[in-house]
Amino acid sequence: MISDxxxxxxxxxxxxxxxxxxxxxxxxxxxLAVCSLFQRTxxxxxxxxxxxxxxxxxxxxKVPVWGWADPYESVVVKFAGQTKSTKADGKGNWMVKLNRLxxxxxxxxxxxxxxxxxxxxxxVGEVWICSGQSNMEWALSRSIGGDEAVANSANANxxxxxxxHNDTETPQHDVKALWxxxxxxxxxxxxxxxxxxxxxxxxxxxxxxxxxxxxxxGTVIEAWISRQGLESVRNRDRSTFLDSIKAxxxxxxxxxxxxxxxxxxxKLQAKEKNLPAPPMPVGLAGALRGPTMLxxxxxxxxIPYAIHGVxxxxxxxxxxxxxxxxxxKLLPVLIKQWREDWGMKxxxxxxxxxxxxxxxxxxxxxxxxxxxxxxAQLRTTRQVKNTALIITMDLGENNVHYLxxxxxxxxxxxxxxxxxxxxxxDYSGPIFKNMKIKGNKVIIGFTNLAQGLVAKGDxxxxxxxxxxxxxxxxxxxxxxxxxxxxxSPDVPKPVSVRYGWADFP
Length: 505
Fold this sequence. Notes:
By secondary structure, the chain is of the alpha/beta class. It is built from eleven helices and 20 strands.
Protein backbone atom coordinates (compact mmCIF):
# COMPACT_ATOMS: atom_id res chain seq x y z
CA MET A 1 0.00 0.00 0.00
CA ILE A 2 1.35 3.46 -0.99
CA SER A 3 1.22 6.20 1.62
CA ASP A 4 0.02 9.77 0.95
CA UNK A 5 3.61 10.93 1.47
CA UNK A 6 4.89 8.59 -1.18
CA UNK A 7 2.21 9.72 -3.63
CA UNK A 8 3.16 13.36 -3.07
CA UNK A 9 6.84 12.58 -3.65
CA UNK A 10 6.02 10.69 -6.84
CA UNK A 11 3.94 13.63 -8.15
CA UNK A 12 6.83 16.00 -7.49
CA UNK A 13 9.19 13.58 -9.20
CA UNK A 14 6.92 13.39 -12.26
CA UNK A 15 6.80 17.17 -12.44
CA UNK A 16 10.58 17.33 -12.37
CA UNK A 17 10.82 14.73 -15.13
CA UNK A 18 8.13 16.48 -17.19
CA UNK A 19 9.79 19.88 -16.83
CA UNK A 20 13.13 18.38 -17.70
CA UNK A 21 11.65 16.74 -20.78
CA UNK A 22 10.14 20.05 -21.88
CA UNK A 23 13.46 21.80 -21.36
CA UNK A 24 15.22 19.09 -23.35
CA UNK A 25 12.68 19.47 -26.16
CA UNK A 26 13.40 23.19 -26.24
CA UNK A 27 17.14 22.54 -26.41
CA UNK A 28 16.65 19.92 -29.13
CA UNK A 29 14.38 22.23 -31.14
CA UNK A 30 16.93 25.06 -30.87
CA UNK A 31 19.73 22.68 -31.92
CA LEU A 32 17.80 21.48 -34.98
CA ALA A 33 16.91 25.04 -35.92
CA VAL A 34 20.57 26.05 -35.77
CA CYS A 35 21.51 22.99 -37.84
CA SER A 36 18.82 23.83 -40.38
CA LEU A 37 20.02 27.43 -40.59
CA PHE A 38 23.61 26.23 -40.96
CA GLN A 39 22.56 23.82 -43.69
CA ARG A 40 20.68 26.52 -45.57
CA THR A 41 23.53 28.97 -45.38
CA UNK A 42 25.82 26.32 -46.85
CA UNK A 43 23.46 24.85 -49.46
CA UNK A 44 24.92 24.58 -52.97
CA UNK A 45 23.56 26.26 -56.06
CA UNK A 46 22.79 23.45 -58.52
CA UNK A 47 22.48 23.28 -62.30
CA UNK A 48 20.79 20.88 -64.72
CA UNK A 49 23.12 18.38 -66.39
CA UNK A 50 22.82 20.37 -69.63
CA UNK A 51 25.06 23.00 -68.07
CA UNK A 52 28.37 21.18 -67.84
CA UNK A 53 31.87 21.19 -69.34
CA UNK A 54 32.00 21.09 -73.18
CA UNK A 55 28.43 22.35 -73.59
CA UNK A 56 27.34 24.35 -76.64
CA UNK A 57 25.18 27.46 -76.20
CA UNK A 58 22.99 28.71 -79.02
CA UNK A 59 24.28 31.79 -80.80
CA UNK A 60 22.15 34.74 -81.91
CA UNK A 61 19.36 34.50 -79.32
CA LYS A 62 18.80 35.04 -75.61
CA VAL A 63 20.10 32.03 -73.70
CA PRO A 64 18.35 30.89 -70.49
CA VAL A 65 20.57 29.62 -67.69
CA TRP A 66 18.70 28.12 -64.75
CA GLY A 67 18.97 25.92 -61.71
CA TRP A 68 18.13 25.56 -58.04
CA ALA A 69 19.25 27.12 -54.77
CA ASP A 70 17.89 28.00 -51.37
CA PRO A 71 14.69 30.07 -51.41
CA TYR A 72 15.54 33.72 -52.12
CA GLU A 73 19.26 33.01 -52.46
CA SER A 74 21.19 35.45 -54.67
CA VAL A 75 22.74 33.92 -57.81
CA VAL A 76 25.21 35.49 -60.25
CA VAL A 77 26.07 34.11 -63.70
CA LYS A 78 29.15 35.34 -65.58
CA PHE A 79 29.84 34.45 -69.21
CA ALA A 80 31.27 36.10 -72.34
CA GLY A 81 31.73 39.45 -70.60
CA GLN A 82 28.17 39.43 -69.27
CA THR A 83 27.13 39.38 -65.62
CA LYS A 84 23.53 38.47 -64.80
CA SER A 85 22.09 38.48 -61.27
CA THR A 86 18.88 37.13 -59.84
CA LYS A 87 17.33 35.64 -56.72
CA ALA A 88 15.79 32.22 -56.36
CA ASP A 89 12.04 32.18 -55.80
CA GLY A 90 10.29 30.77 -52.76
CA LYS A 91 10.76 27.22 -54.05
CA GLY A 92 14.43 27.67 -54.85
CA ASN A 93 14.10 28.00 -58.65
CA TRP A 94 16.11 30.64 -60.47
CA MET A 95 16.85 31.70 -64.05
CA VAL A 96 18.77 34.37 -65.91
CA LYS A 97 18.92 35.07 -69.64
CA LEU A 98 22.19 35.90 -71.34
CA ASN A 99 22.11 38.44 -74.15
CA ARG A 100 22.70 37.21 -77.70
CA LEU A 101 25.99 35.35 -77.96
CA UNK A 102 28.54 35.19 -80.77
CA UNK A 103 30.72 32.30 -81.82
CA UNK A 104 34.34 32.49 -80.73
CA UNK A 105 36.95 30.67 -78.71
CA UNK A 106 35.98 28.27 -75.90
CA UNK A 107 35.06 30.17 -72.75
CA UNK A 108 34.35 29.60 -69.07
CA UNK A 109 31.03 30.14 -67.30
CA UNK A 110 30.93 30.96 -63.59
CA UNK A 111 27.79 30.56 -61.48
CA UNK A 112 28.00 31.89 -57.95
CA UNK A 113 25.63 31.65 -55.02
CA UNK A 114 26.79 30.51 -51.62
CA UNK A 115 29.06 28.23 -53.60
CA UNK A 116 30.78 28.66 -56.97
CA UNK A 117 30.43 26.46 -60.06
CA UNK A 118 32.94 26.74 -62.89
CA UNK A 119 32.04 25.30 -66.32
CA UNK A 120 34.92 25.07 -68.77
CA UNK A 121 35.34 24.67 -72.52
CA UNK A 122 31.99 26.24 -73.35
CA UNK A 123 31.37 26.87 -77.06
CA VAL A 124 28.81 29.08 -78.76
CA GLY A 125 27.26 27.83 -81.98
CA GLU A 126 24.23 25.86 -83.15
CA VAL A 127 22.17 23.47 -81.03
CA TRP A 128 19.74 20.88 -82.40
CA ILE A 129 17.58 18.23 -80.76
CA CYS A 130 17.28 14.90 -82.57
CA SER A 131 14.33 12.88 -81.30
CA GLY A 132 12.02 10.00 -82.19
CA GLN A 133 12.22 6.23 -82.16
CA SER A 134 14.54 3.48 -83.37
CA ASN A 135 15.60 4.79 -86.79
CA MET A 136 16.74 7.99 -85.09
CA GLU A 137 18.33 6.01 -82.25
CA TRP A 138 20.03 3.48 -84.58
CA ALA A 139 23.75 3.37 -83.79
CA LEU A 140 26.38 4.80 -86.10
CA SER A 141 28.53 1.65 -85.76
CA ARG A 142 25.64 -0.55 -86.96
CA SER A 143 25.13 1.43 -90.19
CA ILE A 144 26.69 1.21 -93.63
CA GLY A 145 29.99 3.09 -93.47
CA GLY A 146 29.59 3.47 -89.72
CA ASP A 147 32.91 1.94 -88.61
CA GLU A 148 34.84 4.33 -90.83
CA ALA A 149 32.73 7.26 -89.65
CA VAL A 150 33.39 6.36 -86.00
CA ALA A 151 37.12 6.09 -86.63
CA ASN A 152 37.14 9.56 -88.22
CA SER A 153 34.70 11.23 -85.82
CA ALA A 154 37.17 13.25 -83.74
CA ASN A 155 35.85 16.82 -83.85
CA ALA A 156 36.08 19.25 -80.94
CA ASN A 157 33.47 21.44 -82.64
CA UNK A 158 30.79 18.74 -82.45
CA UNK A 159 29.52 18.07 -78.91
CA UNK A 160 27.04 15.36 -77.98
CA UNK A 161 24.52 15.25 -75.14
CA UNK A 162 22.82 11.84 -75.13
CA UNK A 163 19.65 11.79 -73.03
CA UNK A 164 19.20 8.38 -71.36
CA HIS A 165 15.95 6.44 -71.70
CA ASN A 166 13.48 7.68 -69.13
CA ASP A 167 9.74 6.98 -69.28
CA THR A 168 7.83 8.40 -66.36
CA GLU A 169 4.33 9.56 -65.48
CA THR A 170 5.46 12.91 -64.02
CA PRO A 171 7.49 15.68 -65.72
CA GLN A 172 11.17 15.64 -64.70
CA HIS A 173 13.52 18.58 -64.19
CA ASP A 174 16.84 16.96 -65.00
CA VAL A 175 18.55 14.02 -66.67
CA LYS A 176 21.74 12.07 -65.95
CA ALA A 177 24.09 12.87 -68.81
CA LEU A 178 27.19 14.87 -69.74
CA TRP A 179 28.34 16.76 -72.80
CA UNK A 180 30.90 14.71 -74.74
CA UNK A 181 33.30 15.65 -77.50
CA UNK A 182 32.77 13.85 -80.78
CA UNK A 183 35.36 11.11 -81.16
CA UNK A 184 35.70 7.32 -81.54
CA UNK A 185 35.16 6.72 -77.81
CA UNK A 186 31.84 8.60 -77.82
CA UNK A 187 30.30 8.10 -81.26
CA UNK A 188 30.16 4.30 -81.64
CA UNK A 189 26.63 4.04 -80.27
CA UNK A 190 25.33 7.52 -81.01
CA UNK A 191 22.48 8.10 -83.48
CA UNK A 192 23.75 7.50 -87.02
CA UNK A 193 21.30 9.91 -88.64
CA UNK A 194 21.88 12.52 -85.95
CA UNK A 195 25.65 12.20 -86.29
CA UNK A 196 25.74 12.43 -90.08
CA UNK A 197 23.22 15.27 -90.10
CA UNK A 198 25.00 17.42 -87.54
CA UNK A 199 28.60 16.59 -88.40
CA UNK A 200 27.84 17.64 -91.98
CA UNK A 201 26.01 20.75 -90.76
CA UNK A 202 28.97 21.66 -88.56
CA UNK A 203 31.35 21.48 -91.51
CA UNK A 204 28.96 23.41 -93.74
CA UNK A 205 28.41 26.25 -91.23
CA UNK A 206 31.94 26.24 -89.82
CA UNK A 207 30.74 26.81 -86.23
CA UNK A 208 30.49 24.56 -83.16
CA UNK A 209 27.37 22.38 -83.08
CA UNK A 210 25.61 20.85 -80.08
CA UNK A 211 23.84 17.54 -80.73
CA UNK A 212 21.19 16.69 -78.13
CA UNK A 213 19.90 13.17 -78.76
CA UNK A 214 16.60 12.21 -77.08
CA UNK A 215 15.30 9.12 -78.86
CA UNK A 216 13.81 5.80 -77.78
CA UNK A 217 13.06 2.81 -80.00
CA GLY A 218 9.59 1.28 -80.17
CA THR A 219 7.76 4.39 -78.96
CA VAL A 220 4.53 5.99 -80.21
CA ILE A 221 4.05 9.68 -80.89
CA GLU A 222 1.59 9.98 -78.00
CA ALA A 223 4.47 9.28 -75.59
CA TRP A 224 6.31 12.39 -76.80
CA ILE A 225 3.44 14.86 -76.31
CA SER A 226 2.67 16.48 -72.96
CA ARG A 227 -0.56 15.87 -71.13
CA GLN A 228 -1.71 19.39 -71.98
CA GLY A 229 -0.91 18.80 -75.63
CA LEU A 230 -2.92 15.58 -75.78
CA GLU A 231 -5.83 17.20 -74.01
CA SER A 232 -6.00 19.77 -76.83
CA VAL A 233 -6.70 17.03 -79.41
CA ARG A 234 -10.35 16.94 -80.43
CA ASN A 235 -12.15 13.60 -80.46
CA ARG A 236 -9.00 11.86 -79.30
CA ASP A 237 -8.96 8.09 -79.20
CA ARG A 238 -8.21 5.70 -76.36
CA SER A 239 -4.51 5.57 -77.15
CA THR A 240 -4.04 9.14 -75.89
CA PHE A 241 -5.31 8.45 -72.35
CA LEU A 242 -2.63 7.20 -69.96
CA ASP A 243 -5.15 5.66 -67.55
CA SER A 244 -6.69 3.65 -70.39
CA ILE A 245 -3.31 2.46 -71.62
CA LYS A 246 -2.30 1.45 -68.09
CA ALA A 247 -5.54 -0.53 -67.67
CA UNK A 248 -4.98 -2.32 -70.99
CA UNK A 249 -1.37 -3.02 -70.04
CA UNK A 250 -2.40 -4.53 -66.70
CA UNK A 251 -4.91 -6.83 -68.43
CA UNK A 252 -2.26 -7.93 -70.92
CA UNK A 253 0.20 -8.74 -68.13
CA UNK A 254 -2.45 -10.85 -66.40
CA UNK A 255 -3.11 -12.77 -69.61
CA UNK A 256 0.62 -13.33 -70.14
CA UNK A 257 1.29 -14.34 -66.52
CA UNK A 258 1.19 -18.14 -67.10
CA UNK A 259 3.63 -17.79 -70.01
CA UNK A 260 5.97 -15.59 -67.97
CA UNK A 261 5.78 -17.90 -64.95
CA UNK A 262 6.63 -20.92 -67.10
CA UNK A 263 9.53 -19.05 -68.69
CA UNK A 264 10.95 -18.12 -65.27
CA UNK A 265 10.56 -21.74 -64.10
CA UNK A 266 12.28 -23.07 -67.22
CA LYS A 267 15.06 -20.53 -66.81
CA LEU A 268 15.62 -21.57 -63.17
CA GLN A 269 15.71 -25.29 -64.10
CA ALA A 270 18.22 -24.57 -66.87
CA LYS A 271 20.43 -22.70 -64.41
CA GLU A 272 20.30 -25.61 -61.93
CA LYS A 273 21.42 -27.99 -64.69
CA ASN A 274 24.13 -25.57 -65.94
CA LEU A 275 22.31 -25.26 -69.28
CA PRO A 276 21.83 -22.10 -71.38
CA ALA A 277 18.74 -20.08 -70.53
CA PRO A 278 15.78 -20.77 -72.84
CA PRO A 279 14.82 -18.04 -75.32
CA MET A 280 12.26 -15.56 -74.04
CA PRO A 281 8.81 -16.14 -75.55
CA VAL A 282 8.07 -13.89 -78.53
CA GLY A 283 5.38 -11.22 -78.30
CA LEU A 284 5.36 -10.54 -74.58
CA ALA A 285 4.63 -6.98 -73.48
CA GLY A 286 7.67 -4.81 -72.84
CA ALA A 287 7.90 -1.88 -70.47
CA LEU A 288 4.95 0.51 -70.40
CA ARG A 289 5.73 3.64 -72.41
CA GLY A 290 2.34 5.28 -72.61
CA PRO A 291 1.09 8.76 -73.47
CA THR A 292 3.23 11.69 -72.19
CA MET A 293 5.80 9.40 -70.54
CA LEU A 294 8.72 10.13 -72.89
CA UNK A 295 7.92 13.82 -72.99
CA UNK A 296 8.01 13.84 -69.19
CA UNK A 297 11.30 11.98 -68.89
CA UNK A 298 13.33 13.10 -71.92
CA UNK A 299 11.95 16.37 -73.30
CA UNK A 300 10.63 18.30 -70.27
CA UNK A 301 14.11 18.38 -68.64
CA UNK A 302 15.53 20.06 -71.77
CA ILE A 303 13.10 22.98 -71.72
CA PRO A 304 13.96 25.89 -72.15
CA TYR A 305 17.58 25.20 -73.21
CA ALA A 306 18.23 27.44 -76.21
CA ILE A 307 18.11 25.48 -79.48
CA HIS A 308 17.88 26.28 -83.18
CA GLY A 309 15.82 23.34 -84.42
CA VAL A 310 14.41 19.84 -84.03
CA UNK A 311 14.95 16.76 -86.19
CA UNK A 312 12.01 14.38 -85.68
CA UNK A 313 12.06 10.76 -86.89
CA UNK A 314 9.17 8.73 -85.52
CA UNK A 315 6.05 6.96 -86.71
CA UNK A 316 6.84 3.28 -87.20
CA UNK A 317 5.07 2.34 -83.97
CA UNK A 318 1.96 4.24 -85.12
CA UNK A 319 2.06 2.80 -88.65
CA UNK A 320 -0.70 0.21 -88.33
CA UNK A 321 -3.98 0.32 -90.21
CA UNK A 322 -6.07 0.44 -87.04
CA UNK A 323 -4.32 3.49 -85.56
CA UNK A 324 -2.37 5.37 -88.27
CA UNK A 325 -5.20 7.78 -89.09
CA UNK A 326 -4.70 9.66 -85.81
CA UNK A 327 -1.16 10.69 -86.82
CA UNK A 328 -2.46 13.55 -88.95
CA LYS A 329 -3.87 15.13 -85.78
CA LEU A 330 -1.01 14.30 -83.46
CA LEU A 331 2.07 15.41 -85.41
CA PRO A 332 0.97 19.06 -85.76
CA VAL A 333 0.01 19.01 -82.06
CA LEU A 334 3.52 17.84 -81.10
CA ILE A 335 5.12 20.57 -83.21
CA LYS A 336 2.81 23.28 -81.83
CA GLN A 337 3.30 22.16 -78.23
CA TRP A 338 7.11 21.95 -78.42
CA ARG A 339 7.21 25.38 -80.06
CA GLU A 340 5.10 26.80 -77.25
CA ASP A 341 7.25 25.10 -74.61
CA TRP A 342 10.39 26.67 -76.05
CA GLY A 343 8.66 29.99 -76.74
CA MET A 344 9.65 29.80 -80.43
CA LYS A 345 6.72 30.11 -82.83
CA UNK A 346 8.91 29.33 -85.83
CA UNK A 347 11.14 26.63 -84.33
CA UNK A 348 12.32 24.65 -87.40
CA UNK A 349 11.21 21.02 -87.58
CA UNK A 350 12.76 18.47 -89.91
CA UNK A 351 10.37 15.53 -90.34
CA UNK A 352 11.80 12.26 -91.61
CA UNK A 353 9.28 10.43 -93.74
CA UNK A 354 8.99 6.75 -92.87
CA UNK A 355 11.04 4.46 -95.06
CA UNK A 356 9.15 1.61 -96.76
CA UNK A 357 9.52 -1.72 -94.97
CA UNK A 358 7.75 -5.02 -94.14
CA UNK A 359 6.55 -7.20 -97.06
CA UNK A 360 6.69 -6.40 -100.77
CA UNK A 361 3.50 -5.06 -102.31
CA UNK A 362 1.62 -7.57 -104.44
CA UNK A 363 -1.87 -6.07 -104.26
CA UNK A 364 -2.45 -2.57 -105.71
CA UNK A 365 -5.37 -2.16 -103.28
CA UNK A 366 -3.39 -3.13 -100.21
CA UNK A 367 -4.13 -1.22 -97.02
CA UNK A 368 -1.05 0.36 -95.48
CA UNK A 369 -0.43 2.02 -92.15
CA UNK A 370 2.98 3.15 -93.36
CA UNK A 371 1.47 4.99 -96.33
CA UNK A 372 -1.04 6.74 -94.06
CA UNK A 373 1.79 7.98 -91.82
CA UNK A 374 3.84 9.09 -94.84
CA UNK A 375 0.85 11.03 -96.14
CA ALA A 376 0.33 12.65 -92.71
CA GLN A 377 3.98 13.67 -92.60
CA LEU A 378 3.76 15.22 -96.08
CA ARG A 379 0.52 17.05 -95.26
CA THR A 380 2.02 18.39 -92.04
CA THR A 381 4.96 19.94 -93.88
CA ARG A 382 2.56 21.56 -96.35
CA GLN A 383 0.27 22.93 -93.64
CA VAL A 384 2.73 23.87 -90.87
CA LYS A 385 5.27 26.59 -91.64
CA ASN A 386 8.99 26.18 -91.13
CA THR A 387 8.95 22.42 -91.51
CA ALA A 388 10.66 20.20 -94.07
CA LEU A 389 10.18 16.62 -95.21
CA ILE A 390 13.23 14.35 -95.45
CA ILE A 391 12.50 11.67 -98.06
CA THR A 392 13.61 8.07 -97.50
CA MET A 393 11.53 6.22 -100.14
CA ASP A 394 14.60 5.01 -102.03
CA LEU A 395 16.41 3.68 -98.94
CA GLY A 396 13.89 1.31 -97.36
CA GLU A 397 14.44 -2.40 -96.84
CA ASN A 398 12.16 -5.23 -95.79
CA ASN A 399 13.60 -4.65 -92.32
CA VAL A 400 12.30 -1.51 -90.59
CA HIS A 401 15.89 -0.65 -89.63
CA TYR A 402 17.44 0.08 -93.00
CA LEU A 403 21.21 0.48 -92.76
CA UNK A 404 22.06 3.22 -95.27
CA UNK A 405 21.71 6.20 -92.95
CA UNK A 406 24.29 8.64 -94.32
CA UNK A 407 22.16 9.86 -97.28
CA UNK A 408 19.39 10.70 -94.80
CA UNK A 409 21.79 12.81 -92.75
CA UNK A 410 22.94 14.56 -95.93
CA UNK A 411 19.34 15.38 -96.89
CA UNK A 412 18.58 16.62 -93.38
CA UNK A 413 21.62 18.91 -93.53
CA UNK A 414 20.41 20.42 -96.81
CA UNK A 415 16.87 20.86 -95.47
CA UNK A 416 18.24 22.60 -92.37
CA UNK A 417 20.32 24.95 -94.50
CA UNK A 418 17.16 25.86 -96.41
CA UNK A 419 14.51 26.32 -93.72
CA UNK A 420 16.66 27.18 -90.69
CA UNK A 421 19.52 29.17 -92.23
CA UNK A 422 17.87 30.69 -95.33
CA UNK A 423 20.36 29.16 -97.77
CA UNK A 424 19.32 28.61 -101.37
CA UNK A 425 19.58 24.82 -101.34
CA ASP A 426 17.59 22.19 -103.25
CA TYR A 427 16.77 19.70 -100.51
CA SER A 428 13.49 18.13 -101.64
CA GLY A 429 12.50 15.75 -104.38
CA PRO A 430 9.46 16.48 -106.58
CA ILE A 431 6.23 17.23 -104.71
CA PHE A 432 2.77 16.72 -106.21
CA LYS A 433 1.26 19.93 -107.60
CA ASN A 434 -1.73 19.03 -109.76
CA MET A 435 -3.25 16.44 -112.07
CA LYS A 436 -5.05 16.62 -115.42
CA ILE A 437 -7.09 13.85 -117.00
CA LYS A 438 -6.83 13.41 -120.77
CA GLY A 439 -8.75 10.42 -122.06
CA ASN A 440 -7.36 7.32 -120.38
CA LYS A 441 -4.28 9.13 -119.08
CA VAL A 442 -3.54 11.17 -115.98
CA ILE A 443 -0.85 13.83 -116.24
CA ILE A 444 0.83 14.67 -112.92
CA GLY A 445 2.57 18.00 -112.35
CA PHE A 446 5.14 18.76 -109.65
CA THR A 447 6.86 21.48 -107.67
CA ASN A 448 10.49 21.25 -106.47
CA LEU A 449 11.69 20.16 -109.87
CA ALA A 450 15.21 21.57 -109.54
CA GLN A 451 16.85 20.56 -112.84
CA GLY A 452 14.03 18.28 -113.95
CA LEU A 453 12.60 14.83 -113.34
CA VAL A 454 15.02 11.91 -113.35
CA ALA A 455 14.38 8.19 -112.87
CA LYS A 456 16.68 5.30 -112.12
CA GLY A 457 16.19 2.77 -114.91
CA ASP A 458 13.68 2.79 -117.77
CA UNK A 459 10.52 2.07 -115.78
CA UNK A 460 8.77 4.08 -113.07
CA UNK A 461 7.57 1.85 -110.25
CA UNK A 462 5.01 2.45 -107.53
CA UNK A 463 2.15 4.10 -109.48
CA UNK A 464 -1.39 2.72 -109.36
CA UNK A 465 -4.52 4.07 -111.05
CA UNK A 466 -8.29 3.73 -110.48
CA UNK A 467 -11.64 4.70 -112.00
CA UNK A 468 -14.88 5.66 -110.25
CA UNK A 469 -15.05 2.29 -108.50
CA UNK A 470 -11.75 3.19 -106.73
CA UNK A 471 -10.33 -0.22 -107.59
CA UNK A 472 -6.63 0.34 -108.21
CA UNK A 473 -4.45 -1.32 -110.84
CA UNK A 474 -0.69 -1.23 -111.26
CA UNK A 475 -0.05 1.49 -113.80
CA UNK A 476 2.29 2.28 -116.65
CA UNK A 477 4.08 5.54 -115.80
CA UNK A 478 6.65 7.52 -117.75
CA UNK A 479 8.32 10.91 -117.59
CA UNK A 480 7.23 13.39 -120.25
CA UNK A 481 9.05 16.69 -119.82
CA UNK A 482 8.36 17.88 -116.28
CA UNK A 483 5.34 15.64 -115.83
CA UNK A 484 4.60 11.97 -115.22
CA UNK A 485 1.94 10.39 -117.45
CA UNK A 486 0.07 7.48 -115.85
CA UNK A 487 -2.31 4.98 -117.48
CA SER A 488 -3.55 1.38 -117.50
CA PRO A 489 -5.54 -0.62 -120.10
CA ASP A 490 -7.73 -1.78 -117.18
CA VAL A 491 -8.85 1.81 -116.41
CA PRO A 492 -10.33 3.55 -119.48
CA LYS A 493 -11.72 6.47 -117.41
CA PRO A 494 -9.28 7.23 -114.60
CA VAL A 495 -10.15 9.50 -111.67
CA SER A 496 -7.38 8.76 -109.17
CA VAL A 497 -3.67 7.96 -109.01
CA ARG A 498 -1.54 6.81 -106.11
CA TYR A 499 2.21 6.65 -105.78
CA GLY A 500 3.95 4.34 -103.31
CA TRP A 501 0.76 3.56 -101.38
CA ALA A 502 1.95 0.39 -99.67
CA ASP A 503 4.13 -0.80 -96.82
CA PHE A 504 6.85 -1.72 -99.33
CA PRO A 505 5.89 -0.58 -102.84
